[in-house]
Write a structure and sequence with these properties.
The protein is 39% helix and 0% strand. With 79 residues, it is an all-alpha fold.
């Protein structure tokens, strides 16, 4: 099982929600967008939203496969 939180599980922002536009703003990605003398824009590519879940799934897969191969997976919940 995996879990992801935008701001981690402890610290001053732990209870805050993290959405793509929040991550882009706090991570600095929005500093490369916008118009001169105007506000920054959120980029069209939602890299964080899709990429984060994908990386979690890829990271969990080998461990799950190994547990199944070793007979240590709780397969009773699969039915």
């Amino acid at each position: 099982m995996g879990s992801i939180k935008g701001f981690g599980s402890s610290g001053p922002y732990a209870d805050f929600k993290a959405y793509e536009n929040v991550a882009q703003a706090m991570g600095g990605a929005m500093s490369t967008t916008g118009v001169p003398d105007g506000p920054p824009f959120v980029t069209g590519a939602q890299i964080g939203d899709s990429g984060t879940g994908l990386h979690l799934a890829i990271g969990c897969s080998p461990r799950s496969g190994r547990r199944i191969a070793l007979g240590k997976a709780n397969t009773s919940k699969w039915r």
